[in-house]
Amino acid sequence: MAATIGIIGLGLLGHAVASRLRRAGHRVVGFDVVPERNDALARLGGEPLRSAADVAKAGDAICTLLPSLASVEQVTLGTIVSAARADATMIQMSTISPSLTARLAAEVTARGLGFLDCPISGTSGMVERGTGIIFVGGERALFERWHHVLTTILPRAVHIGRPGQAMTLKLIANLLVALHSAAAAEALLMARRAELDLDVVLDVLTSSAATSSMLEVRGPLIAREQFPAQMKLDLFMKDLHLIQDAARTIGAPLPLTDVAERLYGAANDEGHGGEDLAVVVRALERLAGPRG
Domains in the chain, please, with CATH? Predict the structure, then answer.
């Protein structure tokens, strides 16, 4: 059954989610502070509205895909809880902290609205292709109610537990994204320095025990030395900080992530924040120095 789905935040991932919903026949209304993103929604057949409040009023469900914890909190507590219909559900898809997720869930449900913690594991390109997974936290009955919509975004949506637990798993998934992407960059830089044919290297490695999704997704970017953003490095730095905070809270050591975070931070400091996180190879190249 088609529904009206509101999307607040139409960046790379928000646009991909809107595209999937439109293909499935849902009415999509949305808003972003960047005018060009609203125009892009219109080209998909969606309906850009004038404000986040208008989206909250119109949606049977309201998806938030925003870049920062502060923006999610402001939109949730400043707009959605006051503007949404009494039977609406907030589907929170931004990557934020587990603690903020749990607090927002409590605030939203106290106002009589539904709340689902629904981070996506997958790049915007993966979502466009229908690959990746949605982790879901919240009441199982609410998950079942919206399962048909979630699975039009991605075919697999898995109930993890209460709000905050799905977000914790998303951070764990992004920990592996960070390490696997950095490992791909390290391996392909070594192959380049050894004067191997990187097309052959990628063909062999992605068919071997050494493969990973990040080698498959980011290996070609590294080989071509072109880094159009699937996930912008500056936004991913936020995720790395959230991973570290969550790990400290539960007492989990992350020595490999510590090293990877420094490498990503170096690439970000060199001005690559708007590029895909595969650009971490630039930090490795700096460490390698000029060819002898």
Answer: 4-162 (3.40.50.720), 168-288 (1.10.1040.10)
